[in-house]
Amino acid sequence: GGGAYGAAKAGGAFDLVRFVQQPQVVARIVSAVFALIVFACLVGDGYMSRPEDPQLYCIFNRNEDACRYGIGIGVLAFLACIFFFMVDVYFPQISNTTDRKYLVLADLGFSGLWTFLWFIGFCFLTNQWSWTRAEDVFIGADSARAAITFSFFSIFSW
């Protein structure tokens, strides 16, 4: 037997190629890239201003909460991917089965929560984009669509 949560194999040498080929590592990298795309699109082109009014407004139906939500969950998802990526690196070195169990449960719980939050984000951004007037969008429509699209993809990557 492999022991609880693979604890019997703890302490082996680190193999980068084998590590990167693990499904959870690939999914984590994909999730981080999707999160980066979402918040980069919203930070870069998510806010507009009219030529006669220098006040910035969110491209999603002028709803600041839509941009803040997308940026917030994107940044937090990216940081969580980095954190759990580091946990994946050190996980084989942890021999305490209780610690391993709590890390696995934390990863599972956080992934479930973030899947739900990405679903809410996708629905929220899509709804606000459908109510956005065409005359309010000068540039940034492609970034808004990319944020919506990668929010949708993030549901499945998490």
UniProtKB/TrEMBL annotation:
What gene is this protein a product of? Syngr2
Which parts of the sequence belong to the MARVEL domain? 19-158
The lineage is:
Eukaryota, Metazoa, Chordata, Craniata, Vertebrata
Work out whether the entry's keyword set contains Transmembrane.
Answer: yes
The species this protein belongs to is Setophaga kirtlandii (Kirtland's warbler)
**Predominant location:** membrane
Tell me where the transmembrane regions lie. 25-48, 69-91, 103-125
Q: InterPro entries recorded for this chain? A: Marvel, Synaptogyrin
Keywords in alphabetical order: Membrane, Transmembrane, Transmembrane helix
Q: What is this protein called?
A: SNG2 protein
